[in-house]
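Kindly inspect the following:
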Amino acid sequence: MTALDATNSVTDGSVADVVESPRRRFFRRLRGRRAAVLSAAFLIAITVIGLLAPLIAPHDPLAQELTARRLPPLRDGYLLGTDNLGRDTLSRLMYGMRVAVSAAAISVSVGLVLGVVPALIAGFLGKRWDAVISRVADAFLSFPPLLLAMAIVGVMGPNLTNAMIAIGIVFAPRFYRVVRGAVISVREDTFIEASRSIGTPTGRIIRTHVLPHIFSPLIVQVSLACGFAMLAESSLSFLGLGVQPPDPSWGRMLAEGREAWNYTPWPVLIPAVAIILAVLACNTLGDGIRDSVGRENRSER
């Protein structure tokens, strides 16, 4: 290879890096992180299985067969065995996936609505708005998250919907802190001042200039919050404040299986492993997303 060819090769590579869109750059980096890709595949799998549970579950998750109580896995047609009432563990696990995914989706959505909108107002307008809203957020942050969720569910009543709302309220101050910091870092930039100088409405500035800049830190926080939401829902259901019997959820399966732990550990171990894997997958995916965004000024090497 001649010196001219080498120079042309370097130039072509530099041009390719420059013209590559941020979205393609992000997915290229994310694909290079095998653990994050596997975590995303696992989360997609449990979402699909949960949605299709009524069609693919081998048994009715509520049907009791007292003659088949506490069967071990791979016995009498029950792939993962049965619980204390003879209900199929695999079917209840599948239906529990629906609850876990729903809890993550709805609670995170509630947290985003309650956290992002006030953060945009406080971060962009500042002054008194910032002082008042930040003090409210700090007050909620002073309580332990699970204890706060338990208090909210205790007031609203124990059921899945109230548990999701409670978890969303717990998330709101955390989303607020992340978004507020991102808005403050961008609100004094030159392009924001230029938009203000030509009379662009505040709402349009936030929608077209501010929101794209807070997306990266927000999506990382969302992925981590999904794992905490699954864990919080399981904890509330375990304590009797979430999903109510006989409906299946991973937390309910733990609570119902602990009574016979010394004799039949699989009704406890199976949902426990599912919770651990789901939370680990959310955290690993969040780490992968964090390492794949916001690196435009770093060297790829």
In short: The mean pLDDT is 83.
